[in-house]
Design goal:
Blueprint (H helix, E strand, L loop, with lengths): L5 E18 L2 E14 L5 E6 L10 H11 L2 E2 L1 H5 L6 H20 L13 E5 L5 H11 L7 E5 L5 H14 L5 E5 L6 H11 L5 E5 L7 H10 L4 E3 L6 H9 L5 E4 L1 H4 L2 H11 L2 E4 L6 H14 L6 E4 L10
Parallel strand pairs: 5-6, 5-12, 6-7, 7-8, 8-9, 9-10, 10-11
Antiparallel strand pairs: 1-2, 1-4, 2-3
Amino acid sequence: MRNNTIKFDFHPYKRRFCQPLKTSHGIWEVREGIILRLIDEAGNVGWGEITPLPWFGSETLEQALEFCLQLRTKITEKEVKEISDSLPACQFGFESALESLAQAQRHGERGGVGAHGVRPYSYLLPAGEDVLEAWKTVVNREGTQSLFTFKWKIGVGEVKEEIRIFQKLIQALPLETKLRLDANGGLSFEQAKMWLQVTDETPIIEFIEQPLSPQAFDRMMDLSVNYSTAIALDESVSTLKQLEDCYQKGWRGIYVIKAAIAGSPQRLRRFCRQYSIDTVFSSVFETKIGREAVLRLAAELSNRNRAVGFGVTHWFEGDED
């Protein structure tokens, strides 16, 4: 199939969050992306999704659309492999669409995105005081689970106020719960130390995610040595190139991988298998098409002792994909 021309079309979409998502990057109200469909000469169909996240370092939606428009209606596998590293979400979208098409060719499926191994999810909770009720809503909806992992956004409000809310939260959560704190790089060094002094005394904390900006890598290394709470990199390892760089610089802690913006899934597989890194695969609020593609990767590559960060569908009305 490498040099055969494959027909394709694409469809931009917009999905509004039930409530705005507040992070240290700002307020996010609408998820926009692009659905890809590849069709071979036999009529087999493969699906992919481009879900840019420019404040994490991917291309913009406009750049992704420009790339799709210049291809017109046809592409070859060779052209997919040559997509620039400056378009990591496009790399992932088109390569995962090719994988979906290959699966359809093998199994005679038309339009299916395939199955993945069932894994526990980490459920994203809203920032601020809303968290104190939001976790109960998740438990009531997903009540068949006995163990829950939650992720709470910090670095959004004043640090002492967030710690006050945190103390109320951990008193309310069941003892067997795991809790992740995600700062999105929004803490100062002193604020990060304040949080780590608290979390070192809190057994249910699994890790703090990206406490400092990617530019403060050495300071995050210091924090990982001087406190017992585990630290995970996220914004620092948004793309495969950043992932490789942080590994070469000596990071042996947790890597949160947003595969849909990381770049080539084939290259990501090779890297993770070569170095056996401690990974947590996480969502960028994809539709079902992108989610299934990432979860197939997670089933192969993720640390099986950690929940994947895909408990996010409750942030949308229904699940129209």
